[in-house]
Design goal:
Length: 226
């Protein structure tokens, strides 16, 4: 029976358009099956696919099959269209939100040392990676930005704790204002860029200088990248 149930779950995951949670998978069966049993079967399936080009991964919204990174160079030949490109300004902003959330636009600007253009925020919101989750109780009640489950899914992360640790990142999000000076933007940006490039099939736009100045934000405007 376990082999039958495992085959049913494996088939469902291979055919699914979206990640499936253990609770979703219990609906495959008429007989009662616990989420603990489902998890054990998922672990068994994961182990059986260890030496294949596909892998079963656990992400924020459930479980899904995906191609291994080692297969990307071959699969890319089937999709000749170019992946989206993001400037360093976009990646810096994403890195700050990922490691400092929830954070206001003003706090992002304080950390970066330059203004954040509306185009930068729009690119991240259009991608479905960041969203406003509330408002800070201060003058003007600015929006608080945080990453989404889509961000975690696209980067194959189970939760925010799965992000690589940065030595200079304070653990408490509420310490953003007090820890601005200690935050290493370059390290955070390089870390996020590496993950995003590997998992989300994007390209980053190299800039003439990585010095964070007002002039470097010209890359925020896609017309100026051409």
């Amino acid at each position: 029976m376990d082999d039958h149930n495992k085959r049913v779950i494996e088939t469902a995951l291979l055919c699914a358009q979206e990640p499936l949670s253990p609770a979703d998978l219990t609906r495959l069966f008429v007989e009662e099956i616990s989420t603990t049993e489902i998890k054990a079967l998922l672990d068994a399936i994961q182990a059986e696919w260890q030496d294949k080009g596909m892998e079963l991964v656990h992400i924020a919204t459930g479980w899904r099959f995906q191609s291994r990174l080692s297969m990307r160079e071959y699969l890319d030949r089937l999709t000749p269209e170019k992946p989206p490109k993001y400037s360093r300004a976009v990646m810096e902003t994403l890195a700050i939100i990922a490691y400092r959330q929830p954070v206001t636009r003003g706090e992002i600007e304080e950390i970066r040392g330059v203004a954040v253009s509306s185009n930068v925020m729009k690119q991240l919101e259009d991608r479905g990676w960041v969203e406003v989750i509330g408002h800070k109780e201060t003058i003007g009640r600015p929006g608080l930005y945080a990453t989404t489950k889509q961000f975690l899914d696209d980067l194959s992360l189970t939760n925010l704790q799965s992000l690589p640790m940065l030595e200079d990142v304070a653990p408490a999000a509420e310490d953003v204002g007090q820890a601005v000076i200690q935050f290493d933007v370059d390290t955070a940006t390089e870390t996020i860029t590496e993950i995003v490039t590997e998992e989300a099939t994007i390209e980053t736009v190299e800039e003439i200088t990585i010095e964070i100045t007002e002039e470097s934000d010209a890359s925020d405007n896609p017309d100026e990248q051409k």
